[in-house]
Amino acid sequence: MGVFDDLVGQDQATTVLSRAAAAAGETVRGGRGAGMTHAWLFTGPPGSGREEAARAFAAALLCPDAGCGHCDQCHQVLIGSHPDLETVRPAGLSYSVKQTRELILRAAGAPTQGRWRVILFEAADRATESAANALLKAIEEPPPRTVWLLCAPAPDDLMITIRSRCRQVTLVTPGTEAVAHLLATRESVPWETARFAARAAQGHISRARALALDEATRHRREAVLSIPRSLTGVGECVSAAERLVKTAEEEAAASTGALNATETTDLRRLYGEGSTGKGLNRGLVRGGAGALKELEDRQKSRATRIKRDSLDAALLELISFYRDVLAMQFGAGVELANDDIRYELDQLAKVSTPEETLRRIDAIMRCRERLDLNVNPQIAVESMMLSLRVKHV
Ligand SMILES: [Zn+2]
What we know:
The protein is α/β, with parallel strands linked by helices. It has helices at residues 11-28, 50-62, 72-79, 97-107, 129-140, 160-163, 176-186, 191-201, 205-213, 215-225, 227-230, 234-270, 279-329, 342-351, 354-372, 377-388; strands spanning 39-43, 85-88, 117-121, 146-152, 167-170. Helix 5 links the parallel strand 3 (117-121) and strand 4 (146-152).
């Protein structure tokens, strides 16, 4: 089994990457290695597996056997501990120029294992403009054995000067069958559950995995999908908005709480707490307090991002609900994302018109745009709920 086997439904990308990995191996052995490039850009819709594809490619570059999938090198890459692979994840809403400069310095080092030094930049679209400029310089003049792997939703999300220097790998939304097959074979999920999760996640692999394996995720989905039928009056709309925003907050708190605590403990230890009694006080005077404040700011900004992402995921779920309703109203024989609640979809399809359904989808899209513009979530979601109200059930 090779490292590219896990890339579901991405045959074209896999071909390009395997060829490049073979060429890279040739370079390491002293050959010309035609077809290898120092900067790569992985794009594709959310859930298509951009980071996974980049990580598989990193393994193929660092493995002596072009990504066999079972040697030490491959294993270290896949669990994120390979000394020649640096993975950068956005901690907050954007990357600062300082973070990027530090990264570029580290990237310039020679590979410890003699092959490549790989920098995997997840969500490169979140780099600030000055950070992107620093990045551009690094990509323009890469050290001979450094490879940059950038991930972003679409090529347009990066400055043209950066993307024109990258070789592009475009990933596609994998089909329901392919995702279900992955869940069934890799995660041993029963076939019916795998099909349900793949359909409901609409090609979003990690979402499908969460729906198949995590009960809390399934409950959250049920809660979101029960909203449309509950919106019978103004009071119901306001309380549905409150619930949705609160759920997003709780989800963010759950996924950041433990991480924040570990980071804070690590930082305090770095400044001497726990070693000698007086260490912390001396250390804090010398800059620990500043570093702690900086860490807290970063954690706050990360929490905001996760809150926003999880609210957006709920809105996308609502859109999938109304898209199903619309498909039923038009009698289109397409597969429904939410086939498990077919009866509820049918009820709404019968008491409303396709025009009303389209208006509702529009209202959700508008809400997403407003959230993007930093409108208070409660206000934006409340006004959306009012537009979704059902007047005659
Ligand atoms: Zn290997």
